[in-house]
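Try this one yourself first.
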């Protein structure tokens, strides 16, 4: 498998027989990983390769720098808002990202620290085992931007933490600490910050050492709960991208650039 085409990840091997693929999303300017045109496509596409690579038994997804992910960069968001061709391309990538993670037959472990937003958060919360540092700050930032909470929210938040909590955090765009995320069931585990990677690697090594048919078939069966929610997800994603063609997203982008509250 040729992983050299991926430019926005640091990719290394570790674990039993180098069977764990460590995927680190690169930080931009030493701060946070953000998904631009290339990064968004790569985050969508890599799960196809993980699934097809017989030498991989488990993947670990983590961020570089100050946090796990900072979401889509504002240049990409602006292009989506102003260019129909870009908007339709990114809509397809956003759809494929969710379904590629769900349908990847290898188990995925996420290790989230600092801010966890946007496309990275999609894979982080859809991972089979999601581990957050207690101080992590999980935010679905869509309504703050002026678009519906599409991406992954409708397909998995109600299942993980219940409809009442999902509506509260998604509609109000409230942050969730890693500790609170574990309490409400949004993530599998929350650990002290210095234990995040050791715990993620420990879990990944156990998954890589176990019966691959048993683990993969268990994942496939359980993910039928997510596949059943496909129509809700497809609707949310369509409405999100309809919002990118509306007026509110321009105010959302402007307010983020100017570091002020939006005035919708």
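Now uncover the answer:
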């Amino acid at each position: 498998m040729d992983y050299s085409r991926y430019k926005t990840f640091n990719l290394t091997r570790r674990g039993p027989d180098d069977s764990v693929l460590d995927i680190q999303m690169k930080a931009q300017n030493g701060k946070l990983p953000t998904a631009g045109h290339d990064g968004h496509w790569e985050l969508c596409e890599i799960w196809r390769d993980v699934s097809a690579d017989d030498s991989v038994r488990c993947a670990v997804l983590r961020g570089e720098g100050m946090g796990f992910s900072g979401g889509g960069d504002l240049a990409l968001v602006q292009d989506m808002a102003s260019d129909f061709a870009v908007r339709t391309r990114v809509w397809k990538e956003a759809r494929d990202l969710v379904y590629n993670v769900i349908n990847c037959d290898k188990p995925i472990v996420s290790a989230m620290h600092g801010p966890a937003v946007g496309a990275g958060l999609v894979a982080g919360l859809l991972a089979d085992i999601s581990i957050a540092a207690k101080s992590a700050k999980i935010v679905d930032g869509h309504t703050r931007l002026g678009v519906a909470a599409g991406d992954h929210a409708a397909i998995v938040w109600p299942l993980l933490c219940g409809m009442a909590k999902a509506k509260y955090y998604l509609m109000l765009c409230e942050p969730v600490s890693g500790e609170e995320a574990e309490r409400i069931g949004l993530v599998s585990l929350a650990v002290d910050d210095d234990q995040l990677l050791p715990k993620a690697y420990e879990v990944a090594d156990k998954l890589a050492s176990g019966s691959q048919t048993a683990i993969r078939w268990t994942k496939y069966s359980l993910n039928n709960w997510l596949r059943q929610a496909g129509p809700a997800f497809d609707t949310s994603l369509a409405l999100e991208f309809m919002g990118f063609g509306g007026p509110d997203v321009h105010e959302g982008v402007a307010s983020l650039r100017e570091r002020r509250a939006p005035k919708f």
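Discussion: The radius of gyration is 17 Å. Residues 9-257 form a domain with the 2-enoyl-CoA Hydratase; Chain A, domain 1 fold (CATH 3.90.226.10).
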